[in-house]
Amino acid sequence: MAKRDYYEVLGVSRNAPEADLKKAYRRLAMKYHPDRNEGDATAEESFKEAKEAYEVLTDQRKRAAYDQFGHAGVDPSAGGASGGAGFSDIFDSVFGDIFGAGGRQGNRAYRGSDLRYDLELSLEEAVRGTEVKIRIPTLVHCETCDGSGSRSRGTPETCSTCNGVGQVRMQQGFFSVQQTCPSCRGKGKTVKDPCGTCGGNGKSRGHKTIAVKVPGGVDNGDRIRLGAEGEAGQNGGPSGDLYVNVVVREHSIFTREANDLYSEVPIDFVTATLGGEIEVPTLEGRVVLKIPAESQSGKMLRLRGKGVRSVRGGAVGDLICRITLETPVNLNKQQKELLRAFGDSLGDTSERHSPRANSWLHGVKKFFEDMKFT
User: Fold this and answer.
1) Hey, what domains does the chain have and what are their CATH numbers?
2) What is the pLDDT of residues 62-121, one digit of tens each?
3) Which of 79, 138, 189, 216: disulfide with 52, CB 3.0–4.6 Å?
């Protein structure tokens, strides 16, 4: 008989989040569990069908394959009784919040948590690349007990509560479940005289220094992944990863947008009017910027190839200089008189020499006329 659609089995939509999958599976597991339906082969098949659907749809890789190819895209052993996670593994993940820590969590190997570190860099360091050393908190070998967990550095003994199994069996109504041993926390061993520094764990909080190679071209928000440099795993599980988050400090001259750099360049009245050449800074040194005659404040001038090459590759960006006209200050009497004479020399030709100002004035005049202001 052909298998039913997994989403139909659980009674959820194809875009259902994991929380809805868990809720649906919990409902079906409670309804069809063999302990509640002893001798009912139909209920047992429904229970296995729900378990298989839940296991596939809560695995992102398997779910993607199933969504694209249906049952043919999923490994036949993924949901069957002989492959994948056993019932108690799935049962623990769904009903663990009801029965405490779950069935066998203490004995399983768990991957350590990922860590995040915010690394501040100057714009120059981010663009060119650098290598920095960072100091992060982590679990280290306890020096007090030499990692034994014992104050006397004795050998741990077999736990008397679980007899070294690491689990105890608990009866919860019609369910019989295994739970992490509360005495040894799943290790199967106990320390009679726990070390005061590490509490019997053999490890204590410390720090380690890591060298981080920052590739050239990184930008604000980019992340550098350092594998296995996160929190230590549990019960022999692998360590998590360390993600270094790049934070580029504000620069006094340049602002970065993608691969381009922006810079404000103040120029004087004479240069803006007659044109000229000025030196401007780039990340590679000084270059000459040509100012066209009659340049207005706010004009953008582009210097090709003076920007940034992204860490992801591609062409180098540009340096875009925004011209800012600086009004002269602290003029002496002679300079002021020269400016007045210059203004008088424009006479009735001001519209020709200041087209933008005159256009604005005409617009203002029309606005008042239209609004009938008095």
Assistant:
1) 6-95 (1.10.287.110), 115-248 (2.10.230.10), 255-325 (2.60.260.20), 333-371 (no CATH)
2) 888 788 777 776 755 433 333 444 444 455 555 554 444 444 444 456 687 888 999 999
3) 79
